[in-house]
Design goal:
Elements (H helix, E strand, L loop, with lengths): L1 H22 L16 H10 L25 E5 L3 E6 L4 E7 L22 E2 L3 H5 L9 E2 L3 H9 L3 E3 L8 E4 L5 E9 L4 E10 L4 E10 L2 E2 L2 E6 L19 E6 L2 E6 H5 L7 E4 L3 E7 L3 E6 L7 E10 L7 E13 L1 E11 L2 H15 L15 H22 L2 H15 L1 H29 L6 H16 L2 H9 L2 H13 L24 H16 L7 H19 L4 H24 L14 H14 L1
Parallel strand pairs: 1-7
Antiparallel strand pairs: 1-2, 2-3, 3-4, 5-12, 6-8, 8-9, 9-10, 10-11, 10-20, 12-19, 13-14, 13-16, 15-18, 16-17, 17-20, 18-19
Helix pairs in contact: 2-4, 7-8, 7-12, 8-15, 9-10, 9-11, 9-15, 12-15, 13-14, 13-15
Length: about 625
């Protein structure tokens, strides 16, 4: 019965709607240009304005009509000796940014995703972001008004600074040249935007001036997007030694570094990170490359957003990756902002600091882009001189591999006196071990108030002083900062990237073969070095465990390490073995260590009592 009633109601409703449309047809709108269907942005605004309790929109936040684009959509390609940048006039956004050359060494730069016989350009802009809807690319404008933001990103801008008025065009810069490219938007709704870039053929840094108006009112500050996930897009797999793009910024004078996974898993605000305070600069960077925005003056309101997705390389196992994008507040009153898009190389960043500081008229140091690790305070002062030494040796030998070998020999030769002292201390401590154990056995059954215990403790302290374990270990510990520093020198310098040596195509990465020869050789030499190095432990089983277990652990740790670092360790093992062989031979005559026997407490005490009795 209920189904029948429902059917009758539907039929009657259809008849009423038909008769109403027949007798009262809709009138034609007087404006033929008015859209019959509102744009998605306008619909969204209407929904918000009708929400109960919402504030009535002001004149500035009124719904904008669909953009009337009179300018054609074009592609503008900027070519400099250092990079190629391709801009789409829709949104006035870069859709490609390829780094071509190392400014200092003048050597070409390629992506690690290519091969020696088939090189691949190094693209900074993520293809995943390009393929998303809406598109996610760098240097988009964000005002906080979704309707206005949609208009700014979907409109086609007029171009000033190129010769041709229509069609795709290139803007070529010769060495020493500077050229300006301006994108202009003048929408009927009253929105006016001027987005001016000044490209310098000698710099990775680009000037960016923004002027945004809505009617007669200027919008003093907007946010520009940096990202998503700037870096070498050819990296097939991110590891500990090849980090994924991360957020880096200088806020309130403090360097902020946040990995994308932490932003994605933020419990308080998932996929969003707000960094409040005075912003000096902010960007996104991977191991070797970065894009950074430096505002004309210090601003506030920096935030980062993230989006997770699944990545598969050539049909391999999927890897979770995260697009991280910085929303950097910059003045939009025509002031001169700086966008640095290039390598995270120590020398190049130092040079860029001078250029950016002069342009912004305040001290800028983007050297914080380089990650020196949690021991940066220790490794950074050593890493830079080591990098300078390797560069000098490279100019002498023409090979970074030979430069690392020569530097390793020099460092180990420098520490040879310490190694000598360490070996002698270890040998003496090993020979004193039986006597130390004998004293410990004698002390086991004694009470704390026994007079003999004090004498045995004095003998123990004397043996500990003669076989000082700290004297043997401390010289070895001094060498560890150099190990961290050489790793940082290899990973922060663009010169090591794709520098070949023997069968190794790239000293900054692991060997691209199924079998990694260098780590295996390093493990074998480490086993030999452990066996010939004296240790205080006399247990043969314990010594063999240390000689085999530690090298196998290091093999696991360094299997995917940069080849340059493993080469340093391998050569260090060979030099260390040679030094240890000489030390063992030269100290052979000192095998017998004259150690006075421990004092016999009870007999002396007995003689003293007998003497008293006889008196």
């Amino acid at each position: 019965m209920q189904q029948k009633r429902l059917l009758i109601a539907l039929v009657l409703s259809s008849v009423i709607l038909f008769l109403w449309s027949f007798f009262f047809p809709p009138t034609t709108p007087p404006n033929p240009n008015a859209a019959a269907t509102p744009s998605p942005a306008a619909t969204a605004t209407a929904v918000v304005s009708q929400t109960p309790g919402s504030v009535a929109p002001t004149a500035q936040a009124a719904p904008l009509p669909a953009p009337v684009n009179t300018a054609p959509q074009r592609t503008i390609t900027v070519r400099t000796p250092l990079y190629d940048a391709k801009f789409d006039t829709r949104g006035a956004e870069p859709v490609s940014w390829i780094i071509k050359k190392n400014k200092q060494s003048q050597t070409p730069i390629y992506s690690v995703g290519g091969r020696k016989e088939e090189k691949k350009p190094l693209e900074l802009i993520s293809s995943e972001g390009l393929n998303r809807q809406p598109r996610m690319v760098p240097l988009q404008l964000q005002t906080g008004d979704p309707t206005l933001d949609t208009l700014l990103s979907s409109s086609t801008y007029r171009v000033e600074g190129v010769d041709a008025a229509n069609g795709d065009v290139g803007l070529d810069l010769q060495p020493g040249e500077k050229k300006q490219l301006t994108f202009v938007l003048e929408d009927p709704s009253g929105v006016q935007v001027r987005k001016a870039f000044v490209f310098d053929a000698e710099q990775y840094a680009t000037d960016l001036s923004l002027l945004v108006k809505r009617g007669d009112q200027a919008i003093p500050q907007v946010k520009i997007t940096i990202g998503p996930s700037i870096g070498d897009q050819g990296v097939s797999h991110h590891t500990f030694y090849s980090v994924a793009p991360e957020a880096v910024a200088l806020v309130n004078g403090k360097l902020e570094r946040h990995v994308a996974a932490a932003i994605n898993g933020n419990k308080n605000s998932p996929d969003r990170l707000a960094l409040n305070g005075q912003l000096d600069w902010a960007g996104v960077a991977d191991t070797y490359f970065a894009m950074v925005a430096v505002p004309a003056r210090m601003t506030e309101g920096l935030e980062y957003k993230s989006v997770a997705y699944e990545y598969k390389h050539n049909g391999g196992s999927p890897e979770k990756r995260i697009l991280v994008t910085g929303l950097v507040p910059v003045p939009s009153d025509g002031s001169r902002n700086i966008i640095y898009s290039g390598p995270k190389d120590h020398y190049l960043l130092t040079e860029s600091n001078k250029y950016i500081s002069g342009a912004i008229q305040r001290p800028i140091d983007v050297g914080g882009l380089i990650d020196y690790g949690f021991l940066g305070w220790l490794s950074r002062p050593i890493a830079i001189p080591l990098l300078q030494a390797i560069t000098y040796l490279y100019h002498l030998t023409g090979s970074y591999g030979l430069a690392i070998i020569l530097l390793t020999i020099f460092i180990y030769s420098l520490f040879f006196p310490l190694k000598w002292r360490s070996s002698k201390a270890m040998k003496q401590a090993a020979k004193l071990q039986p006597q130390m154990k004998e004293l410990q056995e004698k002390m086991k059954g004694l009470k704390p108030n026994d007079p003999r215990l004090k004498e045995l403790q004095m003998d123990q302290l004397r043996l500990m002083k003669e076989g000082n374990m700290l004297g043997g270990c401390l010289p070895l510990l001094i060498q560890f900062p150099f190990l961290f520093a050489i790793y940082r020198a290899i990973t922060i310098s663009l010169d090591f990237r794709q520098a070949s040596f023997l069968w190794i195509p790239d000293l900054s990465a692991a060997e691209p073969y199924f079998i990694h020869i260098l780590p295996i050789l390093m493990t074998g030499t480490m086993v030999v070095l452990q066996l010939v190095t004296p240790t205080p432990a006399q247990d043969p089983l314990q010594k063999k465990m240390m000689a085999i277990g530690m090298p196998l652990f290091m093999l696991y740790i360094l299997w995917t390490a940069p080849s340059g670092l493993v080469l340093y360790w391998l050569v260090g093992n060979i030099v260390g073995f040679s030094q240890q062989f000489l030390i063992n031979r030269w100290t052979k005559s000192d095998e017998e260590v004259s150690v006075p026997p421990p004092a016999q407490g009870p007999p002396r005490r007995k003689k003293k009592i007998d003497a008293t009795a006889s008196g």
